[in-house]
C-alpha cells in the first residue's frame, strides 16, 4: 500500500511549521505537496514538490480537496478546508498540532462561525497567539504520531 500524501495549505502555513514538515518528510520518505498561489522555495528533495494555483479565493483549498485521496493528511489552519478534507475521508492537522476529526470538526466549525458573526457585528477579537516553542513541539509530536500510524 502506498503511503498517504501530506498536503500543505502553504500560503498561510508558518515557515517554522514548513521546516518541521520538510525534515519529517525526508526522514520518513513521505510525499509532501505544498499548494499556494505564490511561488515557493523549499529544500531540493524527491519527496517535496509544490503546486502554484491561480490567485483567488480558496484556489489552493479547492485544489487540495480535488486531488487528495482518502487517508491523506492536510496541514491547514483553515477550518472549512479541514471540514472538506474530513468529508473526503482525509485527515487534517493544524499548525498548532490539533488534529481535526469527524468527532470534533463540526463543533470547531460552529465555533468559528459564531466568532465570524461576532466580528461582523463589530466585536473585536484578537487573532491567534504567535506560535511558541510549545506549539511547535505539539505540532511536531502530532505529526510524528500521525506518520508512525501511516
What this model shows, in words?
The protein is an alpha/beta fold and 150 residues long. The model has no long low-confidence stretch (mean pLDDT 88). Helix 1 (15-28) runs parallel beside helix 5 and helix 3 (79-87) packs antiparallel against helix 4 (105-120). A six-stranded mixed beta sheet has the order 3-2-1-4-5-6, sandwiched between helices. 43% of the residues lie in helices and 16% in strands. The protein has helices spanning 15-28, 59-67, 79-87, 105-120, 133-149, and strands at residues 5-9, 31-36, 48-52, 73-75, 91-93, 99-100.
Describe how the helices and strands are arranged.
Blueprint: E1 5-9, H1 15-28, E2 31-36, E3 48-52, H2 59-67, E4 73-75, H3 79-87, E5 91-93, E6 99-100, H4 105-120, H5 133-149
Parallel strand pairs: 1-2, 1-4, 2-3, 4-5
Antiparallel strand pairs: 5-6
Helix pairs in contact: 1-5, 3-4
Task: Work out the oligomeric state of the chains in this entry.
Answer: single chain
Uncertain segments: none
What is the number of beta strands? 6
- The radius of gyration is 15 Å
Defining traits:
150 residues; alpha/beta; six-stranded mixed beta sheet; 5 helices; 6 strands; 43% helix; 16% strand; globular
Amino acid at each position: 500500500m502506498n503511503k498517504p500524501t501530506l498536503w500543505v495549505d502553504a500560503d498561510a502555513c508558518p515557515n517554522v511549521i514548513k521546516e518541521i514538515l520538510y525534515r519529517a518528510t525526508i526522514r520518513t520518505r513521505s510525499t509532501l505537496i505544498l499548494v499556494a498561489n505564490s511561488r515557493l522555495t523549499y529544500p531540493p528533495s524527491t519527496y517535496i514538490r509544490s503546486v502554484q494555483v491561480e490567485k483567488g479565493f480558496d484556489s489552493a483549498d479547492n485544489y487540495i480537496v480535488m486531488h487528495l485521496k482518502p487517508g491523506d493528511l492536510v496541514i491547514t489552519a483553515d477550518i472549512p478546508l479541514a471540514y472538506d478534507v474530513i468529508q473526503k475521508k482525509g485527515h487534517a492537522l493544524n499548525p498548532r498540532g490539533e488534529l481535526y476529526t469527524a468527532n470534533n470538526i463540526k463543533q470547531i466549525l460552529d465555533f468559528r462561525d459564531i466568532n465570524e458573526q461576532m466580528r461582523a457585528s463589530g466585536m473585536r477579537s484578537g487573532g491567534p497567539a504567535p506560535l511558541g516553542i510549545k506549539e511547535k513541539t505539539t505540532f511536531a509530536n502530532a505529526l510524528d504520531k500521525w506518520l508512525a500510524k501511516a
